[in-house]
Each structure stands twice: as structure tokens, then as C-alpha cells.
Amino acid sequence: MVLDALTQIFIIFLAAKVMNEIFVRINQSPVIGELLVGIILGPSLLGIIGHSEVLDVLAEIGAIVLLFMVGLETSVEDLKKVGRIAILVAILGVILPFGMTYLTIIVLGYPQIEALFVGAAMVATSIGITARVLADMGLLDTKEAKLILGAAIVDDILGMIVLTMVSGMAQGSFSMYNTVVIIIEAVLFIIAILYFGRKMLSRATGRHEVEQYRTIEGDVTLKYKTKVYRQDSVVDRLRQKDAPFIIVLLACFGISALAQRFGLAAIIGAFFAGMLFTDTKGSYDVEEKMHSVYVLMTPFFFVVMGAKVDLGGLASFGIAGLLILLSAVAIISKLLGGYLGALKMGTQSALIVGAGLVPRGEVGIIVAAVGLNLGTIDSEIYSVIVMVSIITTLYAPPLIRTAYGKKSV
């Protein structure tokens, strides 16, 4: 029996946090635990939670906060530092999974737009899961780890662009003209947010670059840039408590809504809103305060998404076969993309990079949720994508450890 909304909210949050604690203790991603809570509580098993507009809104807010936090860890400066190899790894790590998955779905006889969405869901790497595995192994300072995380940053940017394109195609007729228009709109939106948004944020916070000079040993003068704050900025003049945090929330939801008005997914706006605040997160405790919202809201997204998994549909022979096939394609395509992109570093390093790009985690689930909400993929395909994300996330840690071999000792 489905309970009232408030009781469902309590049960979801309690169960998610209990499962979260269990999965942290067994060194697995808490995301998987929260998805399993949704599957258990949903219609497929206990039937405690069902379709609810309240839960759908909470889930959407959770996805927006999640992508904002991912964007908060992705600075424009970081993108400039990742180097050519990381960019090549990221590009191949997007093209191969997307292309191989798309062709697989087309060959199996599914519609083109459905194939595009499944391909998009297989594109982006989960930075959080990969970083956690590397940190637990004490390998974050290795050259391979830095390349993996750098490529994953670019991966997410490209993944958001792919999602933008596919979402736009889903809402109109498929044609080369529409595709070009969607790409142009996506690029212009991203440029406008990152360029003009950063300018506006710089004025609001008083943060700006100044050139300074330092004389070293007589005639040698060093010229460098540093970032400073004015004490009379707009933010500093506000009197209400936590004014900077309020501005962060306004930007997060405002840019998300703006993205939606442009026909893009709201989470794309949230991602780039987070990127705006990477330079200021330490100055106003943005990350710490936003993390509290993240802890509250993101479990609702994963639990509600888990509740939409149709276990009955997965039990059929055809769908079970599709799950196995897509899981294999998802793992092989990322391994191959990372390997080919990093081959200049040597065979073992290339294998390590490929292994680090395998986990899809939350990103693939978000793409699947967009497709389900737009009605371009059905519940069976959605369930397959969620299960593939879970499988790649579980498979990644042992794969990374095996690839490192003696380097992990």
C-alpha cells in the first residue's frame, strides 16, 4: 500500500541513509545503495512508494543539486591544465561508447531517438566514483590518476553537450539542420553562462585579477597575476544572514530554469552554474553549505529513480540479453577509448586510464531519467540503463586495482 507523501519522504530518507552507511562500510558507492532502496521500496517489490508529483519534484531538485556539486568541482582553469592527452582520452571516451552503443541499439531494431538516448547515457564517466576508488588506493598523486580525473572533467562537459543535443532532437524532428541548430544553441548557452556569468559573479563578489610585480636579485622582475577581493562588493553590503549562500542557490535554480526555457535539460544549467562558483567556493564556504543541501536532496533522486526500475521487465529473456550485451559494450568501449587515447604513456598506463573511465554511476542515470521523462525511452530500456550504471560502478574498483597491478603496492 502506498503511504502519504510525508511518510514516504521520511521512509525514503531513513532507508537511504541506512543503506548509505552500509555501502560506505563495505567500500562500495553509496549511489548503488540508494538505487537499491528505490528498487526495494518501489512497485517492483514492496510497493511502499509509487508515482507522486511531490517525490518527482524532490527528485528533480536532487538532480539539480547533484549536477551543481559536480560542476563546482570542474573549474575552467582545470580544463586548461589537463593537457592534450587528457582531451584526446576524453574525446575517444565519448565517441566510442556513444557510437558503439548507438549501433548496438539500432542493429537490435530500436528507434533512432531511443538509440541516441541510450548512447548518451553511456558517455560520461562518474568523477566521484573514480576519485573515491583512487583515493582509497592512495593513488591520486600518480600521473595516471591525474590524467583520468582530467579526462573525466572534459568527459562530463562533452556528456552535457551530447545530452543537450539528444534532448533537443527528442523534442523535434530529426534532421541535420536541427542537429546543427541544437549544437549552436548549446555552445552559445554554455559560452554565455561561463563568460557573462563569471563577469557578473566577479562584480558581485568583488573578485578580480590584478597584475603584480616582484623584483628578484636586482634587475630580474617577475610579473604575475593574483586574484583579490574588494571589501565593498555587492555581496559584502548585503545585511541578511548567509547572503552569499542565498546568491548561490538563486544562481543554481535560476540558471537551471533558464536552461529549461532554452529547451535544454535543467541539470545542464545546474552543472554550468556550479562551474561559475569554483573560484569562490572557498571564500564564502559555498561548498560546505551546499553540501548540506546535497546530503538532504540527492537521496530522493536516486531512490525515486530506483523505484522506476521494472524488475518484471528485466526478467524477460530479450531484456536480460540486452542488459548483458549493453554492460559488455559499456565496459569495452570506455576501456578502448581510454586505452587508445593514452597509448603514448605506455600499455600499462593506457589500461589504467581506460579502467578509470569505466564507471557511469549517477551521470548515466540522470541521462536515462531525462529520456524517460521526455517519453523517448520506455521503462524497460530505462531499467536496463540503470542496471548497466550499477554494473559498471561495481566492476570499476576491481578493474582499476587489476590494471594498476604492481603500482598499487
Features:
two-stranded antiparallel sheet, Na+/H+ antiporter like fold, 2 strands, mainly alpha, globular, 73% helix, 18 helices, 409 residues
Question: How do you describe this structure in short?
Answer:
With 409 residues, this protein is mainly α. The chain has helices spanning 5-25, 30-41, 53-72, 76-81, 83-107, 112-121, 127-136, 143-170, 176-205, 234-237, 243-261, 266-276, 286-307, 311-314, 317-341, 347-356, 361-374, 379-404, and strands at residues 207-216, 220-229.
Word description of this protein:
The structure is a single chain. The chain has 409 residues and is mainly alpha-helical. It has a single domain, classed as Up-down Bundle (Na+/H+ antiporter like fold), CATH 1.20.1530.20. 73% of the residues lie in helices and 5% in strands. The chain has helices spanning 5-25, 30-41, 53-72, 76-81, 83-107, 112-121, 127-136, 143-170, 176-205, 234-237, 243-261, 266-276, 286-307, 311-314, 317-341, 347-356, 361-374, 379-404; strands spanning 207-216, 220-229. A two-stranded antiparallel ribbon has the order 1-2. Helix 2 packs parallel to helix 13 (286-307). The mean pLDDT is 79.
